[in-house]
Design goal:
Strand content: over 45%
Structural class: mainly beta
Mean pLDDT: 87
Number of domains: 2
Largest sheet: 12 strands, mixed
Number of helices: 3
Number of strands: 15
Low-confidence stretches: none
CATH topology of the largest domain: TATA-Binding Protein
CATH class of the largest domain: Alpha Beta
Distance between the termini: 17 Å
Length: 243
């Protein structure tokens, strides 16, 4: 109910239908759908149907779209300062018409999807969580979105961390235990926090090392994401307790 109010849907609340499907609670009518997952607190929402789109294309600059999205996220209670919220990329849904002679019109941007990722203590949050997507329509209003963004209720005690070299050693052992064929190469690596997906309960956000490893030389090239917990020895960092 509080979330619906922050989305400026108070006037529609009396007409919404409420449903539960496993861990999802959904409030909806013929125009609006807002769903919240009880395990993660993740939300999915559609505030205007595609059929009701007011314009034929988006011409607004990405800088202005980002301001609109940040304003919406601020209203529903997300920290929007650059040190907390990083604009990862902007995607567009395109539409294209065809006349009776088969001639196609120029593609038009029907809505913009702005994907933000999360930062904590200047470290990125990686994994299926730690992101917010805001969809903006042709009239520069928010029409939908999806996010996995567990609110932090307190900072935990300082914990000792493994060094990067120790994390690499554990990564090597893990790959050997998996008995993977071919040679694997680390193509990306982060010291970060890891946040789980929208269907998962997670009590703590803990520091970790995340590696993207790629196999070269097999019949098919493959990529694998490996997360190594960072807590053990070395420098100190905090973990965070989520709501």
């Amino acid at each position: 109910m509080a979330l619906l109010g922050r989305m400026d849907l108070t006037e529609r609340i009396d007409g919404l239908t409420w449903e539960r499907d496993l861990n999802w609670i959904t409030a909806s009518d013929d125009k609006v759908t807002v769903s919240c997952n009880e395990l993660s607190g993740g939300i999915q929402y559609r505030l205007r149907p595609f059929a009701d789109e007011l314009g034929t294309g988006i011409s607004t600059t990405e800088e202005t779209l980002a301001e609109i999205a940040r304003g919406f996220l601020d209203r529903i209670g997300r920290p929007v300062e650059p040190q907390h919220l990083h604009l990862e990329r902007v995607t567009y849904l395109y539409s294209q018409g065809v006349d009776v002679n088969g001639k196609k019109s120029d593609p038009a941007k029907l809505d913009a999807g702005l994907i933000f990722t999360r930062m904590i203590d200047e470290l990125p949050v990686v994994g299926p969580g730690g992101l917010a997507m805001v969809k903006i329509g042709t009239d520069d209003t928010v029409v939908g979105g999806r996010e996995i963004w567990r609110p932090i209720v307190q900072r935990g005690a300082k914990v000792p961390l493994r060094s990067p070299a120790e994390a690499m050693n554990l990564l090597e052992k893990q790959l050997k235990r998996a008995r993977l064929e071919g040679d694997y190469y680390v193509c990306k690596a982060w010291q970060c926090y890891s946040e789980s997906g929208i269907e998962d309960a997670q009590r703590h956000l803990e520091p970790c090392y995340t590696f993207v490893v790629e196999s070269l030389g097999n019949e098919f090239d493959t990529k694998k994401v490996v997360v190594i917990p960072a807590a053990r020895v070395g420098p100190m960092a905090s973990f965070f307790t989520t709501a």
